[in-house]
Task: inverse folding
């Protein structure tokens, strides 16, 4: 069971975990961010289809990952593969957006 609170209320970390498991099932123990971005973007699009993420405070427009995700999800789901725009946005945003928080638990310093 996962209990979400504070900074753990978003889906990003779950999509990263799903992407890591996908690559591990392929026997991979390392991957470039661009390779990780593909299963991550697909997982985000699949989840957003039933449970869209709420954007943060402030409007970043087309630079915002969730804006790109919203625009690219339909095409991604229809083809079963993330669009190049969504892959690029994922690769750019993952290091700061999700990788800094993936392993953090309440009380960790």
Result:
């Amino acid at each position: 069971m996962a209990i979400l609170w504070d900074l753990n209320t978003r889906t990003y970390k779950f999509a990263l975990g799903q992407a890591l498991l996908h690559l591990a099932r392929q026997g991979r123990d390392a991957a470039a961010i661009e390779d990780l971005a593909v299963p991550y973007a697909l997982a985000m699009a699949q989840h957003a289809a039933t449970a869209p993420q709420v954007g943060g405070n402030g409007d970043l427009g087309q630079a915002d990952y969730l804006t790109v995700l919203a625009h690219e999800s339909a095409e991604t789901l229809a083809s079963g593969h993330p669009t190049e725009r969504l892959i690029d946005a994922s690769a750019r945003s993952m290091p700061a957006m999700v990788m800094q928080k993936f392993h953090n638990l309440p009380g960790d310093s």
About this structure: The two ends are 23 Å apart (CA to CA). Residues 13 and 29 are 18 Å apart (CA to CA). The helical segments are 12-25, 33-50, 65-79, 84-97.
